[in-house]
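ok, trying the design again with the full structure, not the truncated one.
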């Protein structure tokens, strides 16, 4: 049995956390023994990993992974985090030494055959110093957008055996920045655990704020500027002015929560737009909705769009490069510029034949993990 260590940022809601869990659940248990190490041992999805063996991160890794030293509990840990973060920021050699010490304390006497960085950025930067020779990295972003933020990545990725990009768009973007790694970089979309998606879609959730007596829209994701949830208030206002009777539910958590809430309140849209917060089972809400709405500026692999198709809910999405890998415009969903999203939503409910045709088309959607898993297992 091959021993794998998956390193991920945390158990917070997001594509990395869910996609990694899907992958682990689908791997052949007779061939792979998987352990997970979150750099921050916290997050709403932690319970869903309770059956997966876990390695606790060292205090050094936690100190480097928190957004601010103020998030560390207790005076002593805060002081330690200040020293670690200051040292790592001001000396590359000292940071390397700290990471190696962190790995020694995290691993103890445990041995692994392969270590996997489940996301670009912090996880990849820490994994590169792990005393495990065989390294694999996952890339889940439009790398051209963040390349300048990580000046040492060219050196870091040199030390990985394989690099996995989760969509054709992600792969193309990564290759523009690092063409020298073409021979070891592959495109493998995220596998989906269809059984879990459908079971959760058919379950019941105790959420009294979720009422479906009107046209029901749902948007799900990290409350981050790139997701553009702050545009829901203005779009909802336009829909209401044009006479659409609806409720729009936002599911997620993140740093933009107050900005989004203010945008909704300032426009008097509290009766139409409801922020439900983070949910461990978003599939119930997707299945109950009439439409799934994606407003993102960029997505590496919009996994939730495939989940909506599996659950039979049509999607309206903004136009970013990778969405065309997941939606055929006018047939399995609608792709529209952000400025025309209100018109696209209204069109879906005034042209009922269009809505029903898209529903019929996605009812025939079949997601097959077979080839994806074969590709991933050949990498691992």
């Amino acid at each position: 049995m091959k021993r794998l260590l998956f390193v991920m940022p945390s158990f917070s809601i997001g594509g990395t956390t869910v996609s990694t869990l899907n992958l682990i659940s689908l791997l052949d248990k007779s061939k792979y023994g998987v352990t997970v190490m979150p750099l921050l041992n916290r997050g709403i999805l932690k319970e869903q990993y309770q059956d997966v063996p876990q390695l606790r991160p060292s205090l050094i890794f936690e100190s480097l992974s928190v957004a601010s030293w103020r998030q560390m509990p207790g005076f002593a840990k805060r002081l330690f985090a200040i020293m670690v973060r200051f040292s790592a920021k001001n000396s590359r050699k000292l940071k390397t030494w700290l990471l190696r010490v962190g790995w020694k304390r995290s691993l103890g006497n445990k041995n692994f055959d392969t270590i996997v960085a489940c996301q670009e950025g912090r996880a990849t930067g820490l994994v590169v110093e792990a005393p495990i020779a065989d390294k694999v990295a996952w890339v889940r972003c439009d790398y051209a957008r963040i390349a300048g933020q990580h000046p040492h990545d060219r050196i870091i990725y040199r030390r990985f055996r394989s690099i996995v990009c989760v969509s054709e768009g992600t792969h193309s973007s990564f290759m523009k920045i690092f063409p020298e790694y073409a021979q070891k970089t592959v495109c493998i979309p995220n596998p989906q655990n269809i059984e879990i998606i459908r079971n959760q879609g058919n379950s019941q959730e105790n959420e009294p704020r979720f009422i479906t007596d009107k046209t029901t829209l749902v948007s799900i994701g990290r409350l981050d500027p790139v997701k553009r949830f702050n545009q829901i208030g203005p779009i909802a206002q336009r829909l209401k002015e044009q006479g659409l009777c609806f409720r729009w539910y936002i599911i997620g958590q993140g740093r933009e929560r107050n900005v989004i809430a203010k945008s909704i309140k300032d426009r008097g849209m509290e009766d139409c737009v409801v922020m439900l917060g983070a949910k461990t089972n978003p599939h119930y809400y997707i299945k109950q909705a009439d439409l799934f709405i994606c407003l993102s500026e960029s997505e590496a692999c919009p996994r939730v769009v495939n989940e909506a198709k599996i659950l039979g809910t049509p999607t309206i999405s903004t136009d970013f490069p990778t969405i065309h890998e997941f939606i055929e415009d006018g047939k399995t969903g609608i792709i529209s510029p952000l400025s025309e999203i209100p018109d696209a939503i209204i069109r879906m409910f005034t042209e009922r034949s269009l809505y029903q045709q898209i529903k019929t088309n996605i009812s025939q959607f079949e997601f097959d993990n077979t080839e994806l898993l074969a590709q991933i297992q050949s990498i691992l």
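Keeping the full-length input from now on. The chain has a mean pLDDT of 92.
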